[in-house]
Amino acid sequence: GSLAELYLQRNSIGDEGAKALAAGVAASGSMATLYMIDNSNISAAAKQALRDAVQGRQGFHLLLAAAYHSE
After folding, report:
1. DSSP letters of 2-68?
2. Taking the CB of residue 25, how many other CB atoms lie within 10 A of it?
3. Torsion angle of alpha carbons 7, 12, 18, 24, nearest 10°?
4. What digits encode the pLDDT tens for the residues 13-42?
5. What is the pTM of this model?
6. Quick one: angle between helices 14-27 and 44-54, nearest 10?
């Protein structure tokens, strides 16, 4: 099988992990959703690497939010 969605809320993934994840997402033809909510230990450069990895991919859902609150 292939990975289509990945939810990584409140993980201490860090810059190295985010950049490695960006490389994996860029290589994946099946992933369509990546939620990185409340991962405040990721730098702006690592977030940009994730954005670059999905740039131009129709319908890809990328969420890089400081925190998410549902009510």
Report:
1. ---EEE-TT---HHHHHHHHHHHHHH-SS--EEE-TT-TTS-HHHHHHHHHHHTT-TT-EEE--S--
2. 20
3. -50
4. 999 999 999 999 999 888 999 998 888 889
5. 0.84
6. 10
